[in-house]
Write a structure and sequence with these properties.
- The protein is of the alpha+beta class.
- The protein has helices at 3-13, 55-60, 76-83, 162-170, and strands at residues 18-24, 27-33, 36-40, 45-51, 65-70, 98-100, 106-108, 114-123, 129-140.
- The strands form 2 sheets. Strands 2-1-5-8-9-4-3 form a 7-stranded antiparallel sheet.
- The longest helix is centred in the N-terminal third of the chain and has 11 residues, at 3-13.
- The two termini are 22 Å apart.
- 31% of the residues are buried.
- Residues 165-172 have low confidence and may be disordered.
Protein backbone atom coordinates (compact mmCIF):
# COMPACT_ATOMS: atom_id res chain seq x y z
CA UNK A 1 0.00 0.00 0.00
CA UNK A 2 1.19 3.49 -0.77
CA UNK A 3 1.25 5.67 2.36
CA UNK A 4 1.26 8.74 0.12
CA UNK A 5 -1.90 7.61 -1.68
CA UNK A 6 -3.67 7.09 1.66
CA UNK A 7 -2.49 10.54 2.83
CA UNK A 8 -3.89 12.15 -0.34
CA UNK A 9 -7.25 10.44 0.16
CA UNK A 10 -7.48 11.58 3.77
CA UNK A 11 -6.43 15.14 2.85
CA UNK A 12 -9.11 15.21 0.16
CA UNK A 13 -11.79 14.18 2.67
CA UNK A 14 -10.86 17.16 4.88
CA UNK A 15 -12.69 15.90 7.96
CA UNK A 16 -14.90 18.19 10.03
CA UNK A 17 -13.54 18.69 13.55
CA UNK A 18 -15.28 18.23 16.88
CA UNK A 19 -14.43 18.75 20.52
CA UNK A 20 -15.13 15.66 22.61
CA UNK A 21 -15.73 16.21 26.32
CA UNK A 22 -16.28 13.82 29.21
CA UNK A 23 -16.04 13.74 32.99
CA UNK A 24 -15.71 11.34 35.89
CA UNK A 25 -16.52 12.89 39.26
CA UNK A 26 -14.73 16.24 39.38
CA UNK A 27 -12.23 15.32 36.66
CA UNK A 28 -13.08 16.87 33.28
CA UNK A 29 -11.41 16.18 29.95
CA UNK A 30 -11.77 17.37 26.39
CA UNK A 31 -9.90 17.10 23.11
CA UNK A 32 -10.07 18.09 19.48
CA UNK A 33 -10.98 15.11 17.29
CA UNK A 34 -11.25 14.45 13.60
CA UNK A 35 -12.17 10.77 13.74
CA UNK A 36 -15.94 10.48 14.27
CA UNK A 37 -19.01 9.28 12.38
CA UNK A 38 -22.62 8.21 12.58
CA UNK A 39 -22.65 4.41 12.76
CA UNK A 40 -26.36 3.49 12.90
CA UNK A 41 -29.71 5.02 11.98
CA UNK A 42 -32.05 2.98 14.16
CA UNK A 43 -31.14 3.02 16.92
CA UNK A 44 -29.05 6.19 16.62
CA UNK A 45 -25.39 5.40 17.21
CA UNK A 46 -22.22 7.45 16.86
CA UNK A 47 -18.58 6.40 16.93
CA UNK A 48 -15.57 8.44 17.87
CA UNK A 49 -11.94 7.51 18.02
CA UNK A 50 -9.80 8.80 20.88
CA UNK A 51 -6.03 9.00 20.79
CA UNK A 52 -4.36 6.87 23.45
CA UNK A 53 -1.92 9.74 24.04
CA UNK A 54 -4.69 12.07 25.25
CA UNK A 55 -5.84 12.79 28.78
CA UNK A 56 -9.39 12.53 27.40
CA UNK A 57 -8.77 8.88 26.52
CA UNK A 58 -7.65 8.07 30.07
CA UNK A 59 -10.64 9.84 31.63
CA UNK A 60 -12.90 8.32 28.96
CA UNK A 61 -11.92 4.80 29.98
CA UNK A 62 -13.78 5.43 33.25
CA UNK A 63 -16.59 7.60 31.86
CA UNK A 64 -19.99 6.62 30.51
CA UNK A 65 -21.16 10.03 29.18
CA UNK A 66 -19.56 12.01 26.38
CA UNK A 67 -20.42 15.08 24.33
CA UNK A 68 -19.44 15.70 20.72
CA UNK A 69 -19.40 19.44 19.95
CA UNK A 70 -19.57 20.09 16.22
CA UNK A 71 -17.28 23.02 15.45
CA UNK A 72 -18.27 25.77 13.02
CA UNK A 73 -15.84 27.65 10.81
CA UNK A 74 -15.79 30.48 13.38
CA UNK A 75 -14.81 28.11 16.23
CA UNK A 76 -11.08 28.08 15.51
CA UNK A 77 -10.29 29.43 19.01
CA UNK A 78 -12.11 26.47 20.59
CA UNK A 79 -10.19 24.10 18.32
CA UNK A 80 -6.94 25.68 19.47
CA UNK A 81 -7.97 25.58 23.14
CA UNK A 82 -8.77 21.86 23.03
CA UNK A 83 -6.24 20.75 20.41
CA UNK A 84 -2.96 22.49 21.23
CA UNK A 85 -2.74 21.86 24.98
CA UNK A 86 -2.84 18.72 27.05
CA UNK A 87 -5.18 18.10 29.96
CA UNK A 88 -2.25 16.78 31.98
CA UNK A 89 -0.81 20.32 32.06
CA UNK A 90 -3.79 22.70 31.94
CA UNK A 91 -7.48 22.91 32.75
CA UNK A 92 -8.88 23.37 29.25
CA UNK A 93 -12.25 24.38 30.73
CA UNK A 94 -10.88 27.31 32.78
CA UNK A 95 -11.20 29.80 29.91
CA UNK A 96 -14.43 28.57 28.28
CA UNK A 97 -18.03 28.71 29.44
CA UNK A 98 -19.60 25.34 30.07
CA UNK A 99 -22.40 23.68 31.98
CA UNK A 100 -22.73 20.16 33.32
CA UNK A 101 -24.95 17.99 31.17
CA UNK A 102 -26.25 14.45 31.63
CA UNK A 103 -23.82 12.32 33.62
CA UNK A 104 -21.80 15.47 34.43
CA UNK A 105 -20.43 15.73 30.89
CA UNK A 106 -19.22 19.30 30.16
CA UNK A 107 -21.31 21.06 27.50
CA UNK A 108 -19.49 23.98 25.89
CA UNK A 109 -21.67 27.10 25.96
CA UNK A 110 -20.21 28.52 22.73
CA UNK A 111 -20.79 25.31 20.81
CA UNK A 112 -24.56 24.78 20.53
CA UNK A 113 -24.48 22.05 17.86
CA UNK A 114 -23.75 18.86 19.77
CA UNK A 115 -24.52 15.28 20.60
CA UNK A 116 -24.67 13.81 24.09
CA UNK A 117 -23.70 10.16 24.12
CA UNK A 118 -23.75 7.15 26.43
CA UNK A 119 -20.98 4.64 25.87
CA UNK A 120 -22.01 1.21 24.61
CA UNK A 121 -18.65 -0.31 23.69
CA UNK A 122 -14.97 0.46 23.46
CA UNK A 123 -12.83 -1.25 20.83
CA UNK A 124 -9.06 -1.34 21.12
CA UNK A 125 -7.73 -3.20 18.09
CA UNK A 126 -4.12 -2.27 18.80
CA UNK A 127 -3.64 1.00 16.91
CA UNK A 128 -2.98 4.47 18.34
CA UNK A 129 -6.72 5.24 18.78
CA UNK A 130 -9.63 3.41 20.39
CA UNK A 131 -13.14 3.37 18.96
CA UNK A 132 -15.95 4.39 21.26
CA UNK A 133 -19.42 3.35 20.12
CA UNK A 134 -22.21 5.25 21.81
CA UNK A 135 -25.95 5.72 21.90
CA UNK A 136 -27.21 9.23 21.16
CA UNK A 137 -29.19 10.39 24.20
CA UNK A 138 -29.57 14.04 23.17
CA UNK A 139 -28.87 16.15 20.11
CA UNK A 140 -28.96 19.92 19.67
CA UNK A 141 -28.60 21.81 16.42
CA UNK A 142 -29.53 25.49 16.45
CA UNK A 143 -28.78 26.09 12.77
CA UNK A 144 -27.25 24.64 9.65
CA UNK A 145 -23.57 25.44 9.76
CA UNK A 146 -20.34 25.16 7.82
CA UNK A 147 -18.05 22.87 9.82
CA UNK A 148 -14.51 23.74 10.83
CA UNK A 149 -12.36 21.39 8.78
CA UNK A 150 -8.92 19.94 9.33
CA UNK A 151 -7.39 22.07 6.57
CA UNK A 152 -8.44 25.25 8.43
CA UNK A 153 -6.33 24.35 11.48
CA UNK A 154 -3.41 22.60 9.80
CA UNK A 155 -1.05 25.20 11.27
CA UNK A 156 -1.94 24.35 14.90
CA UNK A 157 0.58 22.31 16.88
CA UNK A 158 -1.11 19.38 18.67
CA UNK A 159 -0.78 18.99 22.44
CA UNK A 160 0.65 15.51 21.77
CA UNK A 161 2.60 14.66 18.64
CA UNK A 162 2.47 11.37 16.76
CA UNK A 163 5.76 10.19 18.27
CA UNK A 164 4.09 10.14 21.71
CA UNK A 165 1.38 7.80 20.42
CA UNK A 166 3.69 5.37 18.61
CA UNK A 167 5.13 3.57 21.67
CA UNK A 168 1.60 2.89 22.92
CA UNK A 169 0.53 0.81 19.97
CA UNK A 170 3.70 -0.32 18.20
CA UNK A 171 4.98 -2.11 21.30
CA UNK A 172 2.22 -4.74 21.08
Amino acid sequence: MSDRAFDRIVESLDQPLVVVTTAVGDERAGCLAGFHAQSSIDPGRYCLWLSKANHTYRVGLRASSFAVHLLREEDRALAAAFGTRTGEDVDKFADVGWTAGPGGVPLLDDCPNRLVLERIALLDEGSDHVCLTAEIVDAECVERFAPLRLSAVADLEPGHDSAERAPLWRAR
